[in-house]
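ok so I'm stuck.
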Amino acid sequence: MDSQREALKALGPGFLFAAVSIGASHLVQSTRAGAGHGLSLMVVIVLAMVLKYPLFEFGHRYAAATGTSLLEGYRKQGRWTLVVYLVLTLGTMFTVLAAVTAVTAGLAIQLIGTDWSLFTWSVVITAACALLIAIGRYPLLDAAIKLIMVLLALSTIAAVVAALPGVQPGRLWGPVRATDIAFIVGLVGWMPTGMDVSVWQSFWSLARRRQTGHVPTLKQALFDFRLGYIGTGIIALLFCGLGAAVMFNSGVGIDRSASGFARQLIELYTSTLGEWSRPIIGTAALTAMLSTTLTVIDGFPRALQLTGRRLVGPESESEVSTSAVRTIDFWIWAAVLIAGALLIIRFAMTSLLGLVDVATILSFVTAPFLATLTYRAMTAPDVPEEFRPGRGLRTTAILGIFFLLAFLAYFLHHRFLAP
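replied:
not stuck anymore, here's the structure
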C-alpha cells in the first residue's frame, strides 16, 4: 500500500505533458489529417510518436537521474548550447503561443457566444492564464488537468464509436501528394508536441518532487511519463479517425477561420453524439486548449529565465521549484511572450490554419537541433549508469534525430529548390 501511495505521488508531470500536447496538435492538426486524407496519415502520426518518444522521455529521465533540469545538462556541454537553445526558443515561442491562443479564442467565441472579437478574446485568455499561474501555482494546474484529459478522452472515444456505423466503404483512405509536404511537416513538428517540451518536462518533474517531498524512482517517473505519452498518442489517432469518419467521409472541407474551425470541431461530436453533447464537448475542448495555453505561457518564460541563469552559472538545488522560479525575470519574459503573440494575432494572422502551419513548421525546423542537445545531455558521463538509456532506447533516439533531419532536408529541398 505504501509503495502504491508513493507511486501516486510521482504522477503529475506526465499529465502536464498531455495537457500541453492535446491542444492544437490534436484538435487542429490531427483532425485536419483525418478530414483531408482519411486514415492515410495515421502512419505518420504513429511514426512520429515512436521515433520521438525517447527524446521526450529523456526530460523525465534526466531530472530523475541528476535532480537538475535538462538546461543544466545543456550547460555542461558548453555555454554555446544555451545560446543555441535561446535562439531556437525565441524563434518559435511567439507563433506557438499565438496559434494555441487563437484556437482557444475561437472555441470561446463558439461556446460563450459573445460579440467580442478574436483579438479581444485572446487578450482575455492570455491575461487569465497569467493570473492563474500567479495565484494557482502547480497544485491547481495539476489537479484540473487530470480531470480535463479524462473527460476529453472519453468524449472522443464515444464520438468515434458513434460515427463508425455511418462510414461509407472505401471512404476512409485518401491520397497523399508531394504538395502535402508542408502540412505533413507541421503535423510531425507538433506530434505529439514541440521538442522544447522535453526541457519543460524536467522542470515539471522537479516541481512535482518539491511539491510532494517524494523523490521518485526511475520506474515511477517513467510510468508517469509513459501514461501521459501513450494517452496523447491514442487521442491523436482518435481525432484523426473522427475527422476521417465525419468530414473526409462526407466530403466536408476545413474552415480556415478560428471561429469557423471551432464550430466544425464541436459539430464533429454533435453530429454523432447528438446536440445534447454540445455544452459538454465545447467545455472540454475549451478547457483542454486553455490548459495548453496555460502551460505554454508558463513553459517558455520559465525556460528563458533559467537559460539566462545557466549562462551565468550552474543550477542551484531549489532554483526550478514552483516557489522560486516566478520572480521578476520570469514575468518580464512572460510579458514579452504574450505581447509578441497578441501582436501576431492582431496584425499578422490571416487565417487560423495558416498561423498553425507557420507555428508547427517552425517547431519542426528546430526539432532535430533540440533533440541532439537532449540526447547528448542524457548520454553524458556525469549521468549515473543506472539511469542511462539502454541500447534500444539510444538507437531509437538516434533514428528519431536522423528522421527529423532527413525530413527537414526533404522539406527544405521541396520548398526552395524543387522546380
